[in-house]
Amino acid sequence: xxxxxxxxxxxxxxxxxxxxxxxxxxxxxxxxxxxxxxxxxxxxxxxxxxxx
Length: 52
Prior knowledge:
Mean pLDDT: 90
Radius of gyration: 10 Å
Distance between the termini: 17 Å
Number of helices: 4
Shape: globular
């Protein structure tokens, strides 16, 4: 299971929308969508910590 799949599962598990998670993590919705869709590789370590 790669990062994209795990991120999708966790977003679904906690019941947040992409917009809500992006706001809570302090990143743009566009960045989050790129991580979820696989358009971008891995986020930087600081962004990954914010998403966690």
